Amino acid sequence: MDFDFAHFMLTEGRKGKENPAMVSSPSREAYRKQLAEAMNMNRTRILAFKNKPPAPVELFPREFSSLPQDKPAKPRRHIPQTSERTLDAPDLVDDYYLNLLDWGSCNVLAIALANTVYLWDATNGSTSELATFEDEVGPVTSVSWAPDGRHIAIGLDNSEVQLWDSTANKQLRTLRGCHRSRVGSLAWNNHILTTGGMDGCIVNNDVRVRSHIVETYRGHEQEVCGLKWSASGQQLASGGNDNLLHIWDRSVASSNSPTQWLHRLEDHTAAVKALAWCPFQGNLLASGGGGGDRCIKFWNTHTGACLNSVDTGSQVCALLWNKNERELLSSHGFTQNQLTLWKYPSMAKIAELTGHTSRVLYMAQSPDGCTVASAAGDETLRFWNVFGVPEVAKPAPKSNPEPFAHLNRIR
Q1: Does the pLDDT at position 337 exceed 70?
Q2: H helices then E strands: how many in the chain?
Q3: How far apart are CA 109 and CA 138, in angstroms?
Q4: CB-based contact 23:35 (threshold 8 Å)
Q5: Neighbouring residues of 109: CB distance < 8 A, sequence distance ≥ 6
Q6: Whole-angstrom Cα distance, residue 200 to residue 179?
Q7: pLDDT single digits (tens) 362-398
Q8: SS3 for 303?
Q9: How many C-beta atoms lie closer than 10 Å to residue 376's C-beta?
């Protein structure tokens, strides 16, 4: 490919070999080396360049370049490995099927300890007693704040549900006739309070009217231990001790006859208590199975398809989505009794938080979505700063002021 170099090698190079006396002069040898280096003749293979290629020339100075510069990498969030606060929770009932912890929109945490419901105000750290029930009625089997953060529903062992005004410390009404045994799960959908019982029934109660029972869902054969309404209020997810997960649709609900489920999902092999609707995708539901299943499963609730299943290695007691990042937090039982933070959708483990010495049965999230409270069979209530501080929204850029905006318009 390089004819000049080839001609030199065939003529001058051969002469040097045939008559070594011609190249024995030191000065001639030095000249030959310099010439070879300058002319790049020190090659042994075609297209084998030993000299470095020239450095690229910037056609435009960097400050005038219109190409986007690399964005600085987002700093990795620090996740504290220990709880930032621990409170005693004596007589907390160690029962997987109950729901004894909830954090209301007014930043007040409700926890049921045996026959008593206590309120802990996260704003000032004060604790107060809301209600104590007789042994014939209690223990308390579920608590759930209404969306207003003022009213709270309390499920009881004797099948009744009481509504209380937390600011006035006053009982408002008792819902009777919904169930035949304890009410272990509760979920609000505006003015509709949905109750799930050990009898397998799910009842929608309109708390504004005297005849409060408006719909009944029948599909579970054993205790309903998980209930969650989607953010739109259109779909209800229910999990039971019969290993079943149901999706119910409000639009097909009927007060005349028991409503048919939208999806009946039988993939779990143990009780389904942990349920969490995704905050950034309305039809995505996460569910967790008990000790015989240990899996977190993800569902498209429009089609009923199982999108993914991850074996966590231990009983899944509760699930919470991060409201600010694509992350999911799960709480577990034997053997580590840990909280695990997962990246979604890869389900790579980000952190494992340990400290509880018994299964972490209940979790609740603060209104700002940053702090998580966990309650366990070890009779402690722990607070974890696991979801970090939400990013402050940037103010909208001010539009250019209209010329002469301060003058009155000509009409």
Answers
A1: yes
A2: 3, 28
A3: 20
A4: no
A5: 101, 102, 103, 119, 120, 121, 122, 364, 373
A6: 9
A7: 999 999 999 999 999 999 999 999 998 766 554 554 4
A8: coil
A9: 24
Rounded-to-10 torsion of CA 243, 247, 250, 252: -100
Tokens read off for 151 = 């009213």
What three-state secondary structure class fits 111? Answer: strand
Cα–Cα distance list, 319 to 98, 161, 290, 341 (Å): 15, 25, 12, 10
Please name the amino acid found at residue 325. E
Which are the contacts of 260, defined by CB distance < 8 A and separation ≥ 6? 252
- H or E element, residue 343: strand 339-343
Q: Indicate whether 69 pLDDT > 60.
A: no
Residue 270 and residue 320: Cα distance in Å, rounded? 20
**Phi–psi pair at 233, nearest 5 degrees:** 75, 10
CA-CA distance, 271 to 241, in Å (whole number)? 4
Q: Name which of 317, 311, 313 is nearest 377 in CA terms.
A: 317
In whole angstroms, give the CA distance from residue 332 to residue 318: 7
Q: Is 13 helix (H, G, I), strand (E, B) or coil?
A: helix
Q: What are phi and psi of 245, to 5 degrees?
A: -125, 125
Contacts of 266 (CB under 8 A, 6+ apart): 243, 244, 245
pLDDT at 404: 46
